[in-house]
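Regression report. Comparing outputs from two consecutive submissions.

Submission 1:
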Amino acid sequence: GYSPCTRRIYLLYAYQFAKFHMRSPAEMGEEEIRGYLLHLMEERKVSRETLRQVRAGLTFLYRVTLRRPVEVDYFPAQRAQVRLPAVLSGTEVTVLLEAVQSAKYRAILMTIYAGGLRILEACRLRAEDLDSKRMVIHIHAGKGDRDRYTVLSQRLLTFLRDYWRQQRPPTWLFPGQTQAGHACPESVRRVFRQALATTGIRKRATVHTLRHSFATHLLETGTDVAVIRALLGHDSLRATAVYTHVSLEHIGRTRSPLDMLGTPAARVLG
C-alpha cells in the first residue's frame, strides 16, 4: 500500500543492508542491524533524514516481510531536528519564474507555487484536473495515496491556457520522458537550479521551497492555518504549524511585552 517512491527506497535500503554484511537479511538480526546503523552514523555520516528512512525500511523488512518484529522493537528513533524551511519572497518567486525560458517548465514551477503542489503531483497533472468553474485543481493520489483539492490561480489558468493552445499535450498536461510519459521531476529540479544560478538567489532553495513559500505567503495574508493544511494535504495541523514560525509578517506584528510596560496591558502582567 505504499507509494512507488517509498517502495523503491525500502527495497534499496534492504539491498544495501544485505550487501554491507554480504548475507541474507533472513540470517541476520538485531546485532547486524545495530552495526549497520552505527556504520551509517559514525563512518558515513549520513543525515538524520537518511538514517530515519533506513530505519523505516529495515523496520518494515523485519516486521512485515520476515515477521520478526522483535529484531527492531528496541531501536529508539533519533530525536527529530526541527529545521525551519527556506522561504522565497514574492519578488524572488517572480524573478525566478521569469528566468525560466521553457514554457513547459515555467508552467510546472508556477503550478507548484500557485497551488502548493509537490513536484510529482505537478508533473502528473492532466488538463481535466483543472476545474475552471470552481477554480480548483484536483490532485489525484498525492502523498499517502490521498486525493485533495487546492486553489487554481486565475493568473496560472490564463498561462496554462496559452501553454495548452501552443503545445496541445495529448494525455499529460506536462509530457516528458518518464516511463509513464509525464514530465520528469529531476528535469524540473535541474531547470530550477539553473534559474537559481541565473538570478543569483543565494538561499538554499529547492523546488519544494515553492510549496513552502505558497503556505507562508498564504499565512501572511491572513489565510487560516486549517485551510492551508487542507490545501497542502497535511495529515495534521502540527505539520502545517511550522509555517507560523517562518512567517516574518506574523512575527513582526507580535508586540514585545517590553513595549507594553507602563500601559494598561502591563497591569494585567502584574
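Submission 2:
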Amino acid sequence: MESEKSSREKGIYKVTIVGSIVNFLLLVFKFFAGIAGHSAAMLADAVHSLSDFITDIVVIVFVRIAGKPEDKGHDYGHGKYETLATAIIGLLLLCVGFGIFWNGASSIYTFLRGGQLESPGVVALVAALVSIVSKEILYQYTVIQGKKLNSQAVIANAWHHRSDALSSIGTAIGGAILLGDHWRVLDPVAAVVVSFFIMKVSVRLLIPCVDELLEKSLPEDVEKEIEQTVLSFPGVSQPHHLRTRRIGNYYAIELHVRMDGKITLEEAHSTATAIENKLKEMFGKGTHVGIHVEPTK
C-alpha cells in the first residue's frame, strides 16, 4: 500500500510540476506582452496565470501532507488535506471568475455610456493565442492524469488551467477585431460569458468538497453495493447501522452484521476479515472498514 501511495504521489508531483513550469513561462511572457502591447486585459491575464502557479504549489504541498500515514493526531489519516486543496482551488477559481465578470461588466457599462475601450496590440494578441493553445493542451494532459491518479485536487487544477485559456479568449477577440471602435465591446462581452463558465466549474468543484468536509454519506447506490457484498458471505445477515463517508481519496465504511451466535469467535473473526478484504478490493486498499458482529436474533 505504501508503494501504491508513493507511486500516486510521484504521479501527482510530475503532472503538477509540468503545469507549474508552463505557468511560470506564461506568467513572464504575459507580463511582457501586457506592458509592450499596452494591454490591461493581458496584464490581468498574467495575474490569472500567477494564480495558476499558486494553485500548483497548493497541490504539491497539500498532497504531500495527504500522503502521510495515520498518526496519533490523525487516526483516519490525512486524506482530507487533498480535499482541502481542492476546495482552495475551487475558491480561487470562483474569485477569478467573479473578477473577470466584474472587469467585463465594468467595460460594457463604460462602452454603453459612450466611453472609449482600449484594444490590445499585436503582441498581446499573440500572447493570448499562445496562452489558449498551451493551456488547453495542459488542461487535457492534467485532467487525464488526474482521473488516472484518482485525484480531485489534480482535476481541479486542470480546470484552473482551462479557465486561464478561457480568460485569454476575450483578449484574443479584442486583439483580432480591427474593424473599428464599435466592435471592441465584444472583448468584455466574451469575458463576461467566460466568467459564468468559470464560476459554474468552481461551484461544481466546491460542492463535493463541502459535502465531504461535512461528513456526507456515500451515494445510495454505493451503500447498496456494500450491503449486497456483505450479504454475499454465507452466514452473514441483517447488515445495519451502516455509516459511510469519504476521507480524501478513500472511503470509510462502518457497519454492524449478524452471525450465528453458536459459531466460534475465530470463525466470526475470519468472516469479518474476509468481508473487510473484499470491500478493500472493491474500493481501494486505503479503505477504512469497521465491522461489529452481533448474534442472530
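Expected: both submissions complete independently.
Actual: both completed, but the second showed a warning that disappeared on reload.
Relevant detail on submission 2: The CA atoms of residues 258 and 296 lie 5 Å apart.
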